Amino acid sequence: MLIRWLTRIFDDRYAWLRLTLLGLSGVGYLLVGHDSEDAPHAVLDWLAVGAALALCPVAVRWPFAGLLTASLVFGLAGSLGQADPVVPEVGATWMMLELALRAPTRQLGVGVAALVAAQLTDLVERLPSGLPGWLYDMAVTVGVPLLIGLNIRASRQLARQADQRVAVEARAARTGERAAIARELHDLVAHHVASMVLRVGVARHVLRDTDSRVTEVFDDLHDSGTSALADLRRLVSVLRNPAMVADGPAYVPIEPGALPDALATTVDRAVKTGLTVDATIDPAVATLDTVRGLAVLRLTQEGLANVAKHAGPTARARLCVRMVDGAVHWEITDDGGAYGADGGTAARRGADGGPGTRRADRRADRRAELGASDTGPGHGLTGMRERVEVLGGRLAAGPADDGWRLQTVLPAGVGG
After folding, report:
1. CA-CA distances (angstroms) from residue 186 to 20, 222, 231, 311?
2. What is the pLDDT at residue 410?
């Protein structure tokens, strides 16, 4: 803890604190820390002390100017003053440390020369017997702060280089992962989707005279596959070149103003699979930003797919998307596939006519998906939860009456 505090105290951001403590220590020395014989009593002595203390706030922003002026004050006090210039000497020494911590190399050399010159003013009177003492003073007032400052500066530089190296390695690793994912998407997923779209197109052409309902299914499959293939290609491009995202919204599957129509299209596709969907979509969602708009669309697509998967294609679902004070309130509920296609209660009963056997099995499947690990068969709810949490919300999923409920609130001011 102490070492961490000492490391932080020498950060450039805390120069004001260091120099404030230096000024306070000088005041304390004048008040209680000196002998009466060493106290400044001449006018020049007091002027030197006052100038040394006044330089503390100056050196916070201009350490080079602070050291030059402090060296001048120290030299004048040492050569012309009557008292021992303790405060000017300590001030100049600390200014040397500040310069070593923060200034360029050229300024540092000039500052060292200025402080050495200030020490030389006292050498003439002390030669030859005073040379060892003068060398000791030089080591203390110039050498020690210079070495400490350069060592701290070198440590900072090494730490910055280490951080930069870690960042470069992490960026390279992410780039490699992106490239690997892009290859798999292109070579495996996109290839199979393109093959399916092609086969559906051929089937639609060959079975041109078949039942219109079959033709409608083929058309819907072809359009969905073509749209998915276009999204995959855009996503592969972004994965291979992340700079496209940094330079602007290169991957925008949906324009914000088109969100109500996109939600309506998603509902229509779910209805075509056999679901009955009661949708309430607030027109104000067209004002959403791109990130939250895409999240709402993906949540709706995955939520309705979840209903079809677990409650069955004949289930009844209710979608509600509304805006409240800038936040998006999103909810999908279903009846758990309580009724069969004939409107009866066949789906409520098991093979032995027991109550709710199939519905209980479906709930068990959904609970299993809720608690599934990353190695489990389904990742839909996990992906939905992650998408919501990134935007500052929380996905609630659980039983509701005879069915299931997915619910979240995407707060305002996130993702814009």
Report:
1. 62, 19, 11, 33
2. 92
